[in-house]
User: Which sequence fits this backbone?
């Protein structure tokens, strides 16, 4: 094992204008990581799942822009705006000769490292389609992820790639966003401050098993119309064993005209392939709103506190997706892979939540000691041993601030 080696080239510019009413910070960078440490999968016959090895190389290049400005500033009132824009592209350059492998999720549905592709692409099965551009010596039938849907002539359903000989899991999504933008507006009047943080993500894909199950179980209003009727899936008929499109006497492809019921469309067919559960994760989010009030010096004259700040805040208050049906009420930040590098994978994850907090921030070390005493009284007697800590230790640990969350 050797340490990873990172090389980076960065060019930036920073400036302040109009007495610091406007500030700009822009950076362009390119980073190459060599001898990247990878958990390389091994053959099960070795009795090991993986080997940790220095075999990979990847690169990332991007742009970061920060623009802050103060549109209004008077003696008592200030409106300040902070903006941030980021865009990046990454690519896996080398995997040391090994095949693409998942590092999050599962084999056949997960985030993959694959040479020549962005790190984290989602690979899995797909609804087989025909396109002449897909035809190769290894794939004479020309099936792939693009083109006309291939339909089974025996039942009128789509043909899933996993049922075709020679078909391999393909890249069906890329969870990396095209760009992100954040704006934070703060309005301050004397001791009162109102702040709101709004974020926008453009691009990036997500696989949602939650959405697929909504369709499958019929528990969404998205497909409520026509549930009692019949459907004809648009596409061309093909041999379900080979994926080869069928032709008529004139050599033309045969358009599908087989009617099937809604149960056959949604419950046991069209949402089965991984690629059918991919959605564009572009969304707008109200990340946080906070209202803060700081007591003035006059109000604190007869108190032992140096400063007192009251704050009421809410997080994740609103999410608007643009390419996922509103009826799903789905948050693209839902993630099922836990802590790690997984992204864009939802396996019926519990919904995200709105969070509200009320906090009181008191200044000076003496205030900290008093509050610790109050807090300890509501707990076990043992905790009261900290009511009179050394003042120097208190200053070092709490840095003269203590936050009590109610």
Assistant:
């Amino acid at each position: 094992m050797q340490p990873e080696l990172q090389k980076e080239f960065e060019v930036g510019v920073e400036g302040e204008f109009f007495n610091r009413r406007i500030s700009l910070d822009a950076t362009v960078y390119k980073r190459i990581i060599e001898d990247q440490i990878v958990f390389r999968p091994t053959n099960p016959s070795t009795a090991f799942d993986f080997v940790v090895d220095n075999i990979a190389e990847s690169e990332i290049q991007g742009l970061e822009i920060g623009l802050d400005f103060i549109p209004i500033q008077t003696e008592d009132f200030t409106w300040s705006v902070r903006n941030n824009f980021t865009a990046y592209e990454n690519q896996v350059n080398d995997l040391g000769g090994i095949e693409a492998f998942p590092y999050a999720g599962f084999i056949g549905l997960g985030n993959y490292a694959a040479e020549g592709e962005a790190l984290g692409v989602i690979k899995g099965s797909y609804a087989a389609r025909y396109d002449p551009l897909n035809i190769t010596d290894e794939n004479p039938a020309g099936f792939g992820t693009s083109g006309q849907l291939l339909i089974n002539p025996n039942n009128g359903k789509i043909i899933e790639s996993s049922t075709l000989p020679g078909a391999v899991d393909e890249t069906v999504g890329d969870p990396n966003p095209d760009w992100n933008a954040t704006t934070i507006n703060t309005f301050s009047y004397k001791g009162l401050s109102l702040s709101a943080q709004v974020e926008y993500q453009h691009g990036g894909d997500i696989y949602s098993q939650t959405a697929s199950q909504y369709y499958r179980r019929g528990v969404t209003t998205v497909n409520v119309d026509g549930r009692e009727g019949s459907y004809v899936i648009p596409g061309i008929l093909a041999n379900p064993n080979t994926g080869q499109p069928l032709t008529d006497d004139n050599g033309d492809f045969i358009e599908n005209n087989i009617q099937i019921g809604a149960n056959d469309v949604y419950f046991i067919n069209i949402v089965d392939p991984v690629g059918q559960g991919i959605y564009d994760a572009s969304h707008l989010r109200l990340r946080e709103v906070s209202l803060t009030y700081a007591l003035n010096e006059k109000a604190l004259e007869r108190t032992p506190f140096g400063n007192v700040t009251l704050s009421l805040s809410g997080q994740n208050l609103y999410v608007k997706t643009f390419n996922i049906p509103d009826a799903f009420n789905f948050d693209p930040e839902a993630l099922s892979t836990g802590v790690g590098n997984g992204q864009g994978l939802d396996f019926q994850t519990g919904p995200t939540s709105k969070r509200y907090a009320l906090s009181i921030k008191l200044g000076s070390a003496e205030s900290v000691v008093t509050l610790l005493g109050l807090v300890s009284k509501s707990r076990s007697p043992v905790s009261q041993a900290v009511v009179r800590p050394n003042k120097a230790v208190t200053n070092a640990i709490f840095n003269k601030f203590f936050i009590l969350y109610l």
The longest strand covers residues 50-73. The chain has a mean pLDDT of 84. Residues 1-71+82-98 form one domain. The longest helix spans residues 365-377.
